[in-house]
Amino acid sequence: xxxTARKNVLSKWLKTKAILKDPKVRRxxxxxxxMNEKSLREMLSRYSMVYIKPEAGTYxxxxxxxxxxxxxxxxxxxxxxxxxxxxxxxxxxIVRNKRKRPYLVQKGIHLLKYKGRxxxxxxxxxxxxxxAWEMTGMIGRVAxxxxxxxxYHSGGKPTDVRTLLKAFASGxxxxxxxxxxxxxxxxxxxxxxxxxxxLNMVGADIGLDNHLRPWIIxxxxxxxxxxxxxxxxxxxxxxxxxxxxxxxxxxPAKSKPKR
Length: 259
Ligand SMILES: Nc1ncnc2c1ncn2[C@@H]1O[C@H](COP(=O)(O)OP(=O)(O)OP(=O)(O)O)[C@@H](O)[C@H]1O
Ligand SMILES: [Mg+2]
Fold this sequence. Notes:
By secondary structure, the protein is of the alpha+beta class. 30% of the residues lie in helices and 28% in strands. The protein has two domains: 154 residues, ATP-grasp fold, B domain (D-amino Acid Aminotransferase, Chain A, domain 1); 76 residues, no CATH class.
């Protein structure tokens, strides 16, 4: 299929390269490279903590968090964290335990925590009936306490953004963080659709660091619209789902959701 017609782009590498073309968006993309022994070693010495992930993964499968401190090395996959006294021995173990397909290495973001669990924010951006991009909803995803990924399919818990951010900000500051998240997702969707104009839904996974600065962790082009049903405010799911239906991304109302 021609890139202009594509509704779904699987490669995280192609999606990252596409949004790096936009100078405004570029500033919020954590440094990312194709992973090999050399790039992992370099990225780890630069950032001390990185994530590695399959170039075309889903549900957080195969994602690992890799750390170094003072000559000690660790990596965690699912609930298991392993320690090593050299980079080479860790790398050998990673190769054995990773999925047998190309990986990316990305600067790790120290995500904010809620009750001791990491969280990130899914910002949904969809084309409306006039085909203009619109931010339609956002929802927090709180990681399982012993896991390094926030995905729903890995035990992540969908949670209202305000609940998660209350400990960090209130009033105008809280609103401005929310606006910033929304704008970051919106700008990223526009940037991605310049390379892939056929896209009509983008679920932006955005992490906040200790300075409440947003980082684009990943852009999903086939995001689950049903996750918004977890919000108490039912208007949001209604909007997200009605846009998805109008674009024929999900079946008409009343039929059962697939997932
Ligand atoms: N650079 C990073 N810094 C901090 N956390 C990260 C980073 N990369 C990934 N994560 C965590 O791991 C989760 C899964 O990673 P990612 O979204 O890139 O892959 P995926 O979920 O497998 O893909 P998909 O969303 O298409 O199913 C993220 O939602 C986030 O919680
Ligand atoms: Mg993801």
